[in-house]
Amino acid sequence: MTRLLVALWAVLALAGPALAVLPSEQLANPKLEARARKIGAELRCLVCQNETIDESEAPLAGDLRVLLRQRLMAGDTDRQAIAYIVARYGHFVLLKPPFEADTLVLWLGPFLVLGLGGLGVAAMARSGARPDTEAPAVLTPEEEAALTRRLEADRV
């Protein structure tokens, strides 16, 4: 019975995402809070970079959560609230930045790095696949006799 309870507890602990939204940050209005959670899932923590602001425990993420909720309480639409945060922090704050001239590096950078890596691998493969143009070294009769003497001396 104890094993079953421990297993159930472990499954429940791992079941949902860890949200760092503090109770003091949550809005009393459930609809506004749901909107804030939805928008928060689209915004990147600028410190952690691979977490949303709702998942991050970084102080800056907490500030962004509070700012987002203030904008929603002020009557901003979802787009207006996102636009306000993007205006202050740039497109990098978005988990899915738009495909624009100033975000080309974000979108095309990984493909550029992958392509350069592929070219490097191809160049290495090509340089290693060249046939040898030199004939293998042939031992002179004196060198061959010396080698034979050494091999026989090692056998003894």
Please name the defining characteristics of this protein:
156 residues; Helicase, Ruva Protein, domain 3
Task: Sketch the major β-sheet.
Answer: none
Question: Looking at the chains present, what oligomeric state does this protein adopt?
Answer: single chain
Please, how many helices?
6
Spell the H/E element sequence.
HHHHHH
Give the distance, in angstroms, between the N- and C-terminal Cα atoms: 73 Å
Name the CATH superfamily assignment of the domain at 16-102.
Answer: Cytochrome C biogenesis protein
Radius of gyration: 32 Å
Could you explain how this protein is built, in words?
The protein starts with a helix and ends with a helix. It is built from 6 helices and no strands. 59% of the residues lie in helices and 0% in strands. The chain is elongated.
